[in-house]
Design goal:
The complex is a heterodimer of chains A (299) and B (418).
Chain A (H helix, E strand, L loop, with lengths): L4 H34 L17 H8 L1 H38 L1 H16 L2 H11 L6 H8 L14 H26 L3 H9 L5 H12 L1 H16 L3 H7 L10 H11 L3 H28 L5
Chain B lengths: L1 H19 L4 E6 L3 H18 L3 E5 L6 H14 L5 E5 L3 H6 L21 H4 L3 E2 L2 E2 L2 E6 L1 E5 L1 H6 L11 H12 L6 E5 L3 H10 L17 H15 L8 H10 L2 E7 L3 H8 L6 E3 L11 E2 L1 E7 L4 H15 L1 H11 L6 H5 L1 H10 L1 H13 E2 L9 H16 L5 H15 L4
Parallel strand pairs in B: 1-2, 1-3, 8-9, 11-13
Antiparallel strand pairs in B: 3-12, 4-5, 6-12, 7-9, 7-10
Classes of the chains: A mainly alpha (299), B alpha/beta (418).
Chain lengths: 299, 418
C-alpha cells in the first residue's frame, strides 16, 4: 500500500508527537481534571462516599480565617522575597562582574559560595537554620545577646516568623538569580559602554542607568517570573522549621494544601487549594511566555 | 567475598523456601518509624516465627512516621493491597475504623482478657463504642524530665521535688532566674499535652458518646491556666518542639514536660553533662484522673478468615508478655500487658538498670486512658485549632477561661455537635 506524500508526513508527525502528547494527557491533563472535579466535593481520602458541594471549598479558602491566613501569608512572603531576592542578586552580580576583570579567582570563588545554597538540599539547610536561630542556644541570638541587642524568637514569634522564612527564602534564591544576572551582564556588548562614555555618561551610576539596566530588561523580567514562581511554591522551610505554626502564623498555600490533604485527609478541600495554586502558576507561566515572545530588549 | 557468600546463601534459601513452606500462611505486616522500630520488628518476627513455624511474617517497607503510615494504608485500601496487620499510632487507628478497614478483635480475645494481661484500662486504648478495634502495643504518657543540676542550683532538692503545680511553678521561676539562657519549664501547646493536664485535673475532652465537647469545664480552665502561668511565672519560652528538645539535653531547660517515649533520646543526647531524671506528673484530682496514652497499637485488616486466625496469633504474641518484653527492652516504651509488670521475671532486671523507665511506666500502669480522637471529617483539623488557642493563651494574648470556652464552641461548630 502506498500512501500519498502528505499522508506519510502526517503519519510521521503523529508518530513523533503522539507518544509525548499521550503522556502529557495521561500524566498532567487527566490528573488536573480529576483534581478539578474533586475540588467541588467533600471527598475524604480513603472514604467510601462523597457529596457535591459546589464552590464551598473555594469560599472556605477565602473566607475562613485559617484559609485566608494561608493566602495572605503567601502574598506577604512573595512580596518580601521578590524585591530582595532580585535586588540583592543584581548587586552581587554587578560586584562579581566588575571584580572578575581584576581578580578572576576571587570572583569565581565568591560566585561558587553564593551559588551553594541553590545546590544544597533545602531541607538539610533548614535544619542548619533551625540550629542557628534557636532562641537561647543558637549562634544568632548568642551573638546578638553578646552585643547587648534584643534576641527575638525568630521562628516562634507569630509576628516575625513569616519574615524569618522570607529571609531564608531570599538567602536561597539570591545565588540562582545572580547566575542569571551574570549571564545577562556578560551579554552586554562593551562598545555600548564606550558609546555611552563618548556621549558623556562617565559616572558609574549613569552608565548603569543608561546602558546596564535597559540591556538587562529581558533578564530582569525572566528573573522576576522565576522568583515569583519559586516564592509561591514555598514549602520545604515551612514544613521542616515551623509546620505552619505557631498558631498558623507561617501557614502558606502549598503547606496548607499538604496539611489539609495529607494530615487532615480532606482531599476535596486540598484539591480546591491546588486549583487556586495551579491558576496562579499558569498565570505566571503565561506572563513569562508573553514576555519572552515580545522580546523586550534593544538589540 | 564474605558478602558474596552470604548473598548466594540467601539466594539459595529464597529459591528453596517455597517448597518447604507449602503449608505456611503468609501474614503481611505494616509498621512505621524504622528509627525506633526496625530492630524491634526484626526481633519480634524472629521470636514469633520460632514458635509458629507454620506462619511466615512478611514485613512491608516501613513508613517514616505514623501519619505517613496511615496515608499509605489508605492508598493501599483504595488499590486493594492492604497488609494483613498494621502497627499504627494510638491516636490514628480511628481513621482506619471510620473507613471500615479494621476487623473487630472481640471474637479473638480470650474469655477472661484480664487473666491474659489485657486490663480494662489497656483495652480502652483500642475500643470505640464497645468494640475492640485495636490493641495497644507500646504506651507512653506525659512525664516531667528534670535537670537535677539546675534544681540544686536554684536552691531546691530532688528529694522533696514539688508534687503540686504551685510548687512546680515556683521551682520553675527559681530556675528561670538563674540566667538569661536558662529557662524554667516548657510544655508543647498541643492537643495531647492539653488532654494530659486536663486528665490530671479529672476532666475529659468529650462525653463518652462523643456527642459534646466537655473541656470547657473547671478542669479545662485550670489546665489552660497552667499554660498561662508556665509562661508568665515559670519562664516558658515559645519554643517549637524541636527547639525545646534541643534545649533540654543542652542543659538550659529546668523542667521539660514531654512524652515518656523520649527518655532514650534525651538520655543519649544529654550524655555525661547531667543525669536526666524522670518525675511523674502531679495529679490534682486523684479520684478521677487519667493520662491519655500515646504510642502504638496494632489492628487487623485482613478479611480472609483463614488469615485472620494466623494474624491473631501474631497480634496476641506481640501484645503478650513475651512480645512486650522485647518491645520494652528495645524501645523504652511502656508495656501494654499487665502480666509483664506483675511478674518480675520478665522485666525486673531491666527496671533495676533503668529507674527512669520504671517511674514513667508506673505512671502508665496506674493512669493509662484513651487518647481522645475528635470524630468526623474535621477530627484531625480541630487539634490544630486547640494548639493555636494554647499558643494565644501562653503568649498572654487571651484570657484562659474565655479562650477555652470560645474554643469549645468553635469545636462544636466544626464537628457538627450543635
Amino acid at each position: 500500500m502506498r500512501l500519498s506524500r502528505t499522508a506519510r508526513e502526517r503519519a510521521t508527525d503523529l508518530w513523533l508527537a503522539g507518544p509525548a502528547t499521550l503522556a502529557m494527557i495521561g500524566l498532567i491533563f487527566a490528573p488536573v481534571a480529576i483534581v478539578a472535579v474533586l475540588s467541588f466535593t467533600d471527598y475524604q481520602f480513603g472514604a467510601l462516599t462523597f457529596r457535591w458541594i459546589g464552590w464551598e471549598n473555594y469560599a472556605t479558602l477565602f473566607t475562613d480565617p485559617i484559609g485566608r491566613k494561608a493566602v495572605t501569608n503567601t502574598l506577604i512572603y512573595v512580596a518580601v522575597v521578590i524585591p530582595f531576592a532580585m535586588g540583592l542578586a543584581l548587586v552581587v552580580a554587578l560586584g562579581l562582574h566588575n571584580l572578575a576583570a581584576r581578580f578572576p579567582r576571587i570572583s569565581a570563588t565568591l560566585r561558587a559560595a553564593y551559588f551553594l545554597p541553590v545546590a544544597a538540599t533545602l531541607v538539610a539547610m533548614a535544619l542548619a537554620w533551625q540550629m542557628l536561630l534557636h532562641p537561647s542556644i543558637g549562634l544568632v541570638n548568642q551573638t546578638l545577646g553578646g552585643l547587648g541587642l534584643p534576641a527575638p524568637d525568630w521562628l516562634s514569634d507569630r509576628g516575625l516568623v513569616i519574615y524569618t522564612l522570607a529571609a531564608i527564602g531570599i538567602w536561597q534564591s539570591v545565588g540562582y538569580n545572580m547566575v542569571l544576572f551574570l549571564a545577562g551582564l556578560a551579554a552586554i556588548p562593551p562598545d555600548l559602554y564606550e558609546a555611552a562614555e563618548v556621549d558623556g555618561a562617565t559616572k558609574g551610576w549613569e552608565r548603569f542607568w543608561t546602558v546596564t539596566w535597559p540591556m538587562l530588561g529581558p533578564t530582569t523580567l525572566f528573573v522576576a517570573v522565576i522568583t515569583a514562581t519559586q516564592a509561591f511554591r514555598v514549602f520545604e522551610t515551612v514544613a521542616t522549621l515551623t509546620r505552619g505554626g505557631p498558631a498558623f502564623a507561617s501557614d502558606t498555600l502549598v503547606y496548607a494544601l499538604y496539611r489539609e490533604g495529607f494530615e487532615y485527609f480532606k482531599a476535596g478541600y486540598a484539591s480546591a487549594i491546588t486549583m487556586v495554586f495551579f491558576v496562579v502558576m499558569v498565570a505566571l507561566t503565561l506572563a513569562q511566555f508573553r514576555v519572552l515572545e515580545r522580546r523586550v530588549h534593544y538589540r | 567475598m564474605k558478602t558474596l557468600l552470604t548473598a548466594s546463601a540467601l539466594a539459595l534459601a529464597a529459591a528453596t523456601a517455597p517448597t518447604l513452606s507449602a503449608a505456611q500462611t503468609e501474614i503481611r505486616v505494616h509498621y512505621a518509624i524504622p528509627t525506633i522500630w526496625a530492630e524491634t520488628q526484626a526481633a519480634l518476627e524472629e521470636a514469633f516465627e520460632a514458635q509458629n513455624p507454620d506462619i511466615d511474617i512478611v514485613i512491608d517497607g516501613p513508613a517514616e512516621s505514623y501519619a505517613e503510615g496511615v496515608q499509605r494504608l489508605l492508598r493501599e485500601s483504595v488499590a486493594g493491597t492492604l497488609p494483613d496487620v498494621a502497627w499504627v499510632g494510638l491516636n490514628r487507628w480511628r481513621i482506619l475504623e471510620a473507613r471500615g478497614l479494621t476487623q473487630p478483635l472481640d471474637p479473638f480475645l480470650p474469655e477472661d482478657p484480664e487473666a491474659a494481661g489485657y486490663t480494662g484500662a489497656l483495652l480502652s486504648l483500642g475500643q470505640y463504642q464497645g468494640t475492640q478495634h485495636a490493641l495497644g502495643t507500646s504506651a507512653s504518657t506525659l512525664v516531667m524530665y528534670v535537670n537535677p543540676d539546675l534544681v540544686e542550683q536554684a536552691g531546691y532538692s530532688m528529694d522533696d521535688f514539688p508534687t503540686d503545680y504551685n510548687g512546680i511553678i515556683e521551682l520553675a521561676a527559681a530556675i528561670d532566674d538563674l540566667g538569661d539562657n536558662i529557662d524554667g519549664i516548657w510544655i508543647d501547646r498541643h492537643d495531647w499535652r492539653f488532654q494530659s493536664l486536663l486528665g490530671g485535673y479529672g476532666g475529659r475532652p468529650m462525653t463518652e458518646d462523643e456527642s459534646d465537647i466537655t473541656f470547657d469545664s473547671e478542669a479545662g480552665r485550670q489546665a489552660a491556666e497552667l499554660y498561662a502561668r508556665f509562661a508568665s511565672e515559670g519562664g516558658m519560652k515559645s519554643y517549637i518542639d524541636d527547639q525545646a528538645r534541643q534545649a533540654y539535653p543542652a542543659g538550659t531547660l529546668g523542667i521539660m514536660m514531654d512524652s515518656s517515649s523520649l527518655l532514650k533520646r534525651f538520655t543519649e543526647a544529654a550524655g555525661e553533662s547531667f543525669p536526666v531524671t524522670v518525675v511523674r506528673l502531679p495529679v490534682p484530682a486523684p479520684e478521677n484522673a487519667y493520662f491519655p496514652t500515646g504510642g502504638s497499637g496494632i489492628v487487623m485488616l485482613t478479611e480472609d478468615e483463614a488469615k485472620q486466625q494466623a494474624a491473631w496469633e501474631y497480634i496476641s504474641f506481640v501484645t503478650g508478655p513475651e512480645g512486650q518484653k522485647i518491645i520494652v527492652e528495645s524501645t523504652g516504651y511502656a508495656p501494654t500487658n499487665a502480666l509483664v509488670l506483675e511478674d518480675e521475671s520478665y522485666l525486673g532486671a531491666y527496671y533495676e538498670a533503668n529507674p527512669n523507665a520504671k517511674t514513667a511506666h508506673s505512671q502508665v500502669a496506674e493512669f493509662a486512658g484513651p487518647w481522645y480522637a475528635y470524630p468526623g471529617a474535621e477530627g484531625v483539623a480541630v487539634t490544630d485549632l486547640i494548639s493555636a488557642a494554647l499558643v494565644e493563651i501562653a503568649d498572654g494574648d487571651a484570657e484562659p477561661g474565655a479562650r477555652i470556652e470560645a474554643l469549645a464552641d468553635t469545636l462544636r461548630d466544626r464537628l457538627g455537635m450543635n
